[in-house]
């Protein structure tokens, strides 16, 4: 069930309420691309470390933002964000887990992308109420912050555990989708959202598709139907079994009954146009064995759902990939976790979105990443490549427990219109975590000249297990 909400107390039974709206803010300049916080045409890299210790507070959490440059993410040009950063709402407290989820959009359309940070462990009106912080972009990078509106804190917990941003209700203003646990598992906060704006209302959802105790665990979004209106991919656990459940949501539908379409079950997803037909496609990662999730596979799998005018294209069956698929490097083995992370982006600049797949459990959880390429006919395994810390040119060495490939992102850090590959290994150095960045070329990511850095390089304490890279650009 989906319910329109305003900043009023939610009744015991969810019933439709009227939206309260005010006049939208003027749109002064073209919106910046997500994660381009300083408007220089290069995507910056946001790195969540929700386990970081801050001022002695264990697992308070931190986020590093490393700015793009002609040579890729430049760790010497960075911004460190915690809840103790000047101007940031709240304060760093134990178990807040600031940085558990990240999203970006130019919310106030000033030509600079803004950063959304989820803090699902924040205590508010009750324990683990959760909060979301917006940090504003500018010509000099990120500065200034406010909290995202949180309508019904008594009816959800862990608000901010999943985030996505886009014009989901198709009214011309950027909105924010927020995952949580409890009776309300998904919230849509309506735009415009600016440093000084008041609440524009929104909507909340409780669906019987997933458990209220696990809630919505992951979000991604993109224009599946090709009408300029992004849809949202939702991930959660089934109420009775705990198995993965994934759906495509059209947040513009207001009848609250048929706004969800079922997708192949998985735990993470990414959206991009693999075949350049004007309809974004969906990659769903399910890294579980069938013993843990009946929708999983030996070693894990990734399902590709091709988009069409009504959502998933009914004339194209989902493409299912494992490490036993012809052309995919490696072999499917128990515990590989193929599909632990997925991301779509155009690596070689040919106009087709390519797919990076993390395999964080490979070789005793040392980890690996595979890149497959898009084409006019869809995703192909031709020319697929795989990378580990033992690949020539990649810094470091593969070690058990590193979880290289837990998260992956494909985005243009250099401004050459090719998506560079960035990879996290949150288990590196006994839970410190680390990031690798491989520059894109016309033939794919190259390990030559690749870089790596950890939390200490960007000002985050290595006390405890910060889990640097638990979240990356989505």
UniProtKB/TrEMBL annotation:
Record-annotated membrane-spanning stretches: none
Signal peptide (UniProt feature, chain positions): 1-28
Region (Disordered): 189-212, 444-474
A Pfam family annotated for this UniProt entry: FG-GAP
Key words of the record: Glycoprotein, Hydrolase, Repeat, Signal
Gene3D superfamilies reported in the protein's UniProt record: Integrin alpha, N-terminal
UniProt entry tagged with the keyword Nucleotidyltransferase: no
Protein name listed in UniProt: Integrin-like protein
Organism: Streptomyces qaidamensis
